[in-house]
Specification:
Length: 431
């Protein structure tokens, strides 16, 4: 059977957000790329499968990065002294203009894809640029990497630099149709996602065009929402009849639901820091995913998202690196930042919302974000088999630690940047 095997080691996951699910010296079985569960003693029916014994290594589900900008990887860790709108105009848009040049795109996307492959991330939602052929090039590279991804050609027909803004809404839609037709059925693990950059960059005409495209192709949607106060005020000036930012997407059926045809529209919105109660309720009603990006929110002085509140309400939540607003691809780092900013929210903003604990943040990085891709982010029976195996012996300690301590320490000390020894995506070993 293809992609069928057993791996052995210290298996760590979170089936529910409130607690760790730990299995020292145990087996996890993969059959045709699907997990059959975790076992202390290997069942007889699986004893003839190939066995990979990783000894005392840690075995985690693959990490999910729900929000990352591939063309921004080249200038990560730079230009961090500005707030969002100035940062976009002074640094981000000029960098993204360069992807008109396929030679530059080829070189820069190689760096990004190779880094993603070596990271703990197994699945991701990616913004490319507005350039069709550079986006197709990125999709080809992602497919070769073995990672599972959604990749979006960005749409933007206003409020951008001259070299980046698209000629018109009609031209943006025309190029998007061309892109979607070109990549349709071309890849196994790399799928298109509709990507209006955000409302400030998209005219009403373009949003209407994107609505028609979404209905025609049935693809998911990704964008940004309520990231900064200045952005929200700008959106209000552009669409004064909307009571809140999210309505600007919902008016065009790009916010989780299309009520006209009674269809779900799988949607992920990054940030949601300043979402009003009405906006949160609509996200909850429509099943919109929140991509929480704490590093970016700090770097761009945007604010602290109330993730405890969202978790308590039952919103769909995952984590994002948001390169290059965020400065590092490590989702382990994003887990720790998620916990840290929740502590600041509790202490400085609202003590009614307790800080997240480690198991909850780990859950968001795996099963929480993984649900955007289906049954992903766990080794439970029936889940797609994504795994990251790490040797934490490089994190020396003077005493013997239990598995919960080793798991938490591995994340806080960014073991994913130090010693990944194997990585599986959909049952296929890619590292």
């Amino acid at each position: 059977m293809e992609n069928s095997f057993v791996i052995k080691g210290n298996i760590c996951q979170t089936k529910i957000a409130k607690e760790l699910d730990l299995h020292p010296c145990s087996y996890v079985v993969c059959v045709n790329g699907i997990s059959k569960g975790i076992f202390k003693v290997l069942p007889q029916e699986y004893v003839d499968l190939p066995l990979f014994d990783y000894g005392d290594a840690l075995i985690f589900p693959g990490m999910i990065d729900l929000h990352v900008h591939a063309p921004q990887y080249a200038f990560r860790g730079m230009c961090m002294d500005l707030e969002l709108m100035d940062w976009l105009n002074q640094y981000t848009f000029p960098e993204e203009e360069k992807y008109e040049n396929l030679e530059y795109a080829d070189k820069a996307y190689d760096l990004f894809v190779n880094a993603m492959k070596k990271s703990s991330t197994t699945r991701t939602c990616i913004f490319a640029t507005r350039h069709r052929f550079a986006t197709e090039l990125l999709m080809e590279k992602m497919e070769k990497s073995g990672l599972v991804s959604y990749v979006g050609k960005v749409n933007m027909d206003r409020e951008a630099s001259k070299g980046l803004v698209e000629e018109s809404a009609d031209m943006s839609a025309y190029v998007t149709f061309g892109w979607l037709n070109s990549v349709k059925g071309k890849f196994k693990n790399t799928k298109p996602i509709l990507t209006p950059r955000f409302i400030p960059c998209c005219t009403d005409k373009l949003m209407e065009e994107l609505r028609e495209i979404q209905m025609a192709y049935g693809i998911p949607v990704q964008s940004h929402l309520s990231e900064s106060k200045g952005e929200i005020e700008f959106v209000k000036s552009l669409r004064p009849d909307n009571e809140f930012y999210g309505e600007s997407y919902n008016d065009y059926d790009l916010f989780g639901k299309n009520d006209d045809i009674n269809a779900d529209v799988k949607t992920v919105m990054a940030h949601c820091i300043w979402s009003s109660e009405e906006e949160v309720n609509l996200m909850l009603k429509n099943g919109v995913f929140v991509a929480h990006c704490p590093a970016s929110n700090m770097n761009l002085t945007s604010g602290i998202a109330p993730i405890r509140k969202y978790l308590n309400l039952g919103l769909n939540i995952g984590l994002g690196s948001d390169i290059a607003g965020g400065h590092n691809l490590s989702i382990f780092r994003v887990i720790t930042e998620t916990i840290q900013v929740s502590k600041l929210y509790f202490r400085l903003i609202d003590e009614n919302y307790k800080p997240l604990v480690f198991s909850e943040a780990f859950y968001l990085a795996t099963k929480g974000g993984g649900s955007f891709f289906g049954n992903v982010g766990s080794f439970e029976h029936g889940y797609e088999f994504d795994a990251v195996i790490m040797d934490d012996s490089v994190l020396v300690h003077p005493q013997k630690l239990n598995l919960a301590e080793r798991m938490e320490r591995a994340v806080y000390l960014s073991l994913d940047e130090k010693n990944i020894i194997a990585k599986y995506v959909a049952g296929k070993q890619i590292l």
